[in-house]
Amino acid sequence: MILTLSHQKGGVGKSTIAWNLAFELSKNIDVKVIDLDIQQSLSVANDIRVNSGLPSMPIEKIESPDRLTKLIQNDTDDQLIIIDSGGFDSSFNRIAIVASDMIITPISDKPFDLMGLKKYEEILQTLSDIQKETIQSHVIFNSINPSMRRFEELIEFVESSKHFKPLKTILRQRVDYANSIGSGKTVCEYKPASKAAQEILALAKEVKELLNIF
Length: 214
Fold this sequence. Notes:
Chromosome partitioning protein; 46% helix; Rossmann fold
């Protein structure tokens, strides 16, 4: 199975979500993480993790489309490949989108993030036309102000497109996300009882249900 964190816009939280999901989902299935981000944030975080004496995450940096294609072709139901795509449009990212069993697109409530979603919608439409099927991404509201409680307008915005479907889980602005990665840990390792950890656990549960991972 393939799960891709995808958005042509950078800085929306793809790497952070991939990092934390990989740790939680690995408790139920063999996980391999593909780092397509030009900043290689996951690989850097993993170096910090190893240098801190923690077990390495199964992360691979991909440098050629052929290697990515080979991994996708060898995809099985016994392993979950989590792809952290870069914040740009490229052949790498398009290959990942088309091959995915599930796509997650993080957005915040900021105007530029919402505008960027329209551009991403164009990419999904182009790929849908090529594949002759509707490619849909699960949108997660990420880095949302903790005081925000009403999401009707955001949900309506997302559901206005046939290419998007909102996830139930909401990830809010939490300093624990940055602090945990800075120490080479996931939020569930860093502060297991924190609100951030509970959000990630909720997201992992939702993803497992959608992908039938038990």
